[in-house]
Amino acid sequence: xxxxxxxxxxxxxxxxxxxxxxxxHLELGVRPNLKTPTEFTNISVDVLEPSGESIGGxxxxxxxxxxxxxTLALGIREDGGHLDNDASGTIYPILEISRGRVGAxxxxxxxxxxxxxxxxxxxxxxxxxNLRVGPLGTQIESxxxxxEEEDELQTKRYRYVITANIQVFGxxxxxxxxxxxxxxxxxxxxxxxRVYQEANDFKGSQMRVAVxxxxxxxxxxxxxxxxxxxxxxNKIPLVTPGxxxxxxxxxxxxxxxxxxxxSDIEGEVEELSVDSVFYLxxxxxxxxxxxxxxxxxxxDYSHLVAALAMSGAAGxx
Amino acid sequence: xxxxxxxxxxxxxxxxxxxxxxxxxxxxRDSNNTPASFYLTSNIVLNANGSxxxxxxxxxxxAQVFGPRPIKGSYMxxxxxxxxxxxxxxxxxxxxxxxxxxxxxxxxASFVETCLVLSIxxxxxxxxxxxxxxxxxxxxxxxxxxxxIQRLTAWIVNCTSVAIVDSGIEVKDIVTCGQTxxxxxxxxxxxxxxxxxxxxxxxxxxRNDEIVGLxxxxxxxxxxxxxxxxxxxxxxxxTVRSNINSYLLQDQ
Lengths: 317, 252
Fold this sequence. Notes:
Chain B: InterPro entries: ExoRNase_PH_dom1, PNPase/RNase_PH_dom_sf, Ribosomal_Su5_D2-typ_SF, RNase_PH. The complex is a heterodimer. Chain A is built from 6 helices and 17 strands. By secondary structure, chain A is an alpha+beta fold. Chain A starts with 9 loop residues before the first helix and ends with a helix.
């Protein structure tokens, strides 16, 4: 009996034997997602206007189907004194990847959020001083006055807390580079409202500055954190103008498959078959590398060099 | 207890109610007797079985359908449907903190579920589950409250129905929804929110306008208001349905 050979279409092969499918694609010089080995998928990011509860945010479009939305929310807390002496601040991200299930966060969600939390700090994206609430203003009738300098009489210091809610729709591959891009642009555009108190909050509302005696010292009356007001018409940028722009820190992802570096891996076949995935954060228009992280097998130095060259070409275009 | 699996803000953080400085109001519509124009598209999320996206006024709604998926456990002769509804964190909801799932979300999800269960041919999907996830991505600047929930729900039902069609799950008919308001002064307003008697009716227009969901809230001056609101809601549902039909036909 003659056995007939059954050809397996490539999409099916990608499901059952992703490594074989990928190597066959690469022999032809094109990847399963129809990119060349050094090509990057188009990314576009739009800034979201503050609305409702958010003080900013951004939306990222990657390829034709991946959409990521982040919104930044503002909190305030009392300054922890010496505990808050770090030079660099960070944000508190909560990440959700839409996958048709509910419940506890997945490992990927947890590790991505942790990575973002740490790398924002390590890369000194946010100056810790910018998270300090400046001298509190005082509202007298319809005008708000802000003292030039920190008032000696003010006993409590406050800090801004920024939380980010990140929603991923249509995940098509490793996500950290996309989340980084999105977050850098959101943070760059983010503005923090100045904080003031209403004069009525002081005891003895007729007085311009309420003071009381503590021993032989004059102390400004404390008001509860809940009664602080936010001046939405007077905002300070989170990132000081003139300092290095966060959006110039570009993040790229690469995969290594059988000794070959593939840019911007995307799609199920590539994600399943690559030996390692690595991320590279570099400054735009310079060769300074800020961060490299590798998942999976160890990566050769030559792979990094190749990746750096690819990212350079992508960064300038 | 704090959630140790997520990176949450320090415990002593207070989240104030800040809002946008300039509130943009929804542009008034020309006529009170026609539903608002809307933008609808489907099949936008690749890793869901079906998905749709709808914009109407300031609402942006996205629905994803996953399934039929097999369930663990003993054999069941029919499928089951679950609906989750979530507002994006930036949407302010009156009377709830942003940390827990709100009452509004629960109410919307259970209404949508009631409507869908009656339209899906569940006998065709034994021992499986059909999971619907609804995300409300944007709303008016001043948030969502009781007075807006019905109008939002109407559009969520319409959006979800299209996502179900996109997923290829067999249905008796596409459920469509209409919403009307009979104002305090007795005037009828189609697809508008406000004070008075609000009616939300979900029907299956191809099955003799069978009503699969009904929700009425508010006060009225007499029983005629109820029949008026219901009749015009069905009318609106039919108008929306003919729009959905033409969308689905040009999609082929």
